[in-house]
From TrEMBL:
Keyword annotations from UniProtKB, A to Z: Membrane, Transmembrane, Transmembrane helix
Any single GO CC term annotated in Swiss-Prot or TrEMBL for this entry: cell cortex of cell tip
Biological process according to GO: fungal-type cell wall organization
Protein name per UniProt: SUR7/PalI family-domain-containing protein
Organism name: Staphylotrichum tortipilum
Statement: the UniProt record of this protein carries the keyword Protein transport: no
Pfam families documented for this protein: SUR7
PANTHER family reported for this sequence: CELL MEMBRANE PROTEIN YLR413W-RELATED, INTEGRAL MEMBRANE PROTEIN (AFU_ORTHOLOGUE AFUA_6G07470)
Signal peptide per UniProt: none
TM region positions: 160-181, 193-221, 241-265
Coiled-coil segments: none
Length: 331
């Protein structure tokens, strides 16, 4: 019964660790395994920029320019505002940990190939293409320093989010490995508990970075949504998934601690039972003992039995039921 209790005590944190790993994998692989899941979404369908505003944004002088004429600004000599199509943008962008997905104007959804540090490459390419597009349409300006630095910062945060997710995956995998042997001894339980602490910290850091990135980007876009018509929101299902994984990891760590102090293996009782069985081999069944050197102590012929009736000797004081080792030498 004690062994079964130990098994159940180890099984609970093992299953919690497995659930934590599954939840973090589901969140981290958004856009790859589950293309309907994403960190946050940016919708530029209603993007609308006046050419004058774009000029002021690009040269860093503000977003409310005076009504003056800029002969170099033509954007294919259009008279209306600039839309997402004019800038070569798709309607919707879903940003994930390892890639991003986009929805074209005809409603087709596609995702880029997953890659490490994808944000730095994709955003640098996008800003370069944007500058080329502006130059081709009459702008002799480049994106201001504030925009390029923000893009670079997002790429750095995205890369470290990927690194922490990898650490969390490895730590949870190691925790599962040691958890397989935690039923054997307290030593394995102790090691598993230490690994669980590292895995919990890594899982919380991964979820925290993903959440912070989503909140900062969505907040920045929403702050200017009334001006430019761009909408953004973070995915509560993604956040619930990764933070549920953190909750599972915390629960697993607590239960691994219980396996050290409350659900110890029943080695002591087995050893005591073994010692008791050994002791029984050396304890004679009779109440006393008989010296083999005495003639009447040998159950020989009937003559001896009549002439020398048996005498029973009590055990020496303090050694009840003891065994006389030197009696073998005289048999």
């Amino acid at each position: 019964m004690a062994n079964f209790g130990r098994f159940v005590c180890v099984l609970v944190p093992f299953l919690l660790t497995l659930a934590a790993l599954a939840a973090l994998l589901a969140g981290g692989l958004a856009g790859i395994a589950d293309k309907g899941l994403y960190m946050f979404r940016v919708n530029v369908t209603d993007l609308s920029l006046s050419p004058l505003s774009v000029t002021k944004i690009l040269d860093g002088t503000g977003i409310n320019p005076p009504k003056v004429d800029f002969p170099g600004l033509n954007f294919k000599r259009q008279s209306g505002n600039i839309s997402a199509a004019n800038l070569g943008l798709n309607d919707v962008y879903d940003v994930n940990v390892w890639n991003y997905c986009y929805t074209t104007q005809d409603g087709k959804r596609e995702c880029t190939k997953p890659a490490f540090n994808w944000a730095a490459t994709a955003l640098n390419t996008t800003t370069g293409d944007f500058n080329n597009l502006l130059t081709a349409n009459g702008f002799n300006v480049t994106l201001p320093k504030e925009i390029t630095e923000a893009v670079k910062a997002f790429g750095t945060v995205s890369k470290w989010t990927q690194v922490v997710f990898i650490i969390a995956y490895i730590a949870l995998g190691v925790e599962l490995f040691f958890g397989l042997f935690a039923n054997c001894s307290r030593a394995f339980s102790c090691v598993t508990f230490l690994v669980a602490g590292v895995a919990t910290v890594a899982a919380a850091a991964a979820a925290g970075l993903a959440t912070a990135t989503s909140v900062v980007v969505v907040g920045a876009v929403e702050a200017s949504s009334n001006i430019y018509g761009v909408d953004a929101h973070f995915n509560t299902r993604f956040l619930a998934t990764v933070w549920l994984g953190v909750a599972f990891a915390i629960g697993a760590g607590l239960f691994w601690m219980f396996t050290i102090c409350c659900c110890a293996p029943d080695h002591g009782s087995r050893r005591s039972r073994a010692r008791g069985a050994e002791a029984e081999k050396f304890i004679p069944g009779g109440p006393g003992y008989q010296r083999l050197s005495e003639p009447h102590g040998y159950n020989g012929g009937a003559g001896y039995a009549q002439q020398y009736p048996r005498q029973s000797y009590g055990a020496p004081q303090g050694h009840a039921g003891a065994y006389e080792p030197y009696s073998h030498a005289r048999v």
